[in-house]
Amino acid sequence: MHAVENGMHPDDAADIFECGRSTVYGWVKAHREQGPGALVVRKAPGAAPKLTERQFGQLRSIIMGQDPRQFELDFALWTRELVREVIKRKFGVEYTVQGVGKLLHRLGLSAQRPLVRAYEQDPERVRRWKEQEYPAIHAAAITAGASIFFGDEAGVRTDYHSGTTWAPVGRTPVVAGTGARLSVNMISAISTQGKMHFSFIEGNTCSATFIDYLTKLLHDIPGKIFLILDGHGAHTSAETTRYVASTGGRLTLFFLPPYSPELNPDEWVWKNVKHDHVGRMAARTVDELKNGIEKAIDRLQRLPEIVCGFFGDPDLRYISLAANGPVT
Prior knowledge:
The protein has helices spanning 2-5, 10-16, 21-34, 53-65, 80-91, 97-106, 123-144, 207-220, 233-236, 238-246, 266-275, 286-302, 304-310, 317-324; strands spanning 147-157, 183-191, 196-201, 225-229, 251-255. By secondary structure, it is of the alpha/beta class. It has 3 domains: 2-39, no CATH class; 53-106, no CATH class; 123-162 and 177-324, CATH 3.30.420.10. A 5-stranded mixed sheet has the order 3-2-1-4-5, with helices on both faces. A hairpin with a 4-residue loop joins strand 2 (183-191) and strand 3. Helix 2 (10-16) packs across helix 3 (21-34) and helix 5 packs across helix 6 (97-106). The longest helix has 22 residues, at 123-144. The mean pLDDT is 83.
């Protein structure tokens, strides 16, 4: 329109802008009768939604709060195909898989890697641990002048790998490692102040190896220790119970709810050591694997702020709440 308003003939404008004469004359007429707003380019309205706003809300609630297996579907993870099937069953509406993807984004959802929780876990027991049992342990530790540590064992094999590497597109890279499945077992304990105690375990975890570690822990960490663990048999055995009693009150053991590894910050130690460090080594021998583990552990011991950062996980918020808030 600027060209026509500045004196260009509509026929010449049609030739220059490569559009029909009738189109240009239509623009001129619309501009003359309705003003400049008539020529504003507007996004074409999309197709009317197939679901009502109420149905959108129902669908979001289903995805957020229910397991696909409740609908006799074969998988525990929501996929676009499964959502498509639920929409068809519940609302009688057909969507393409691509359409479901757009719908899920509209609902504020995105594809994410889930955390897997044991179905045997008792939510009420977890609630009591967070709101009552751990705060009571924290208060008792203050009264006794004890340090609180969380402990856990782990194992890693020489054929464990994680991470990625750069390579030409379409050509899978090959890294030389070992096919031997040789294991290294270890145990650690971390405090809420970022202290870390570590030891390798010879053989599998049993009462004898666990007691040996407890002896080292008491030797290296002064004062009273409240040690929080899972319910592994070596932790709860009669031999371990007798050993703890023999320490004269220097050591007290407490146990997390069953099937609740997410409540133990020491799990983050193994994620850091195994996934972030050892898994990227492609260790060829046990000695090489142990050397890599020792380097990763030494870094954590030198940088307690990293260990303290493990406690920032949302599942571990109960620990800081007990330290900063009233005991319930």
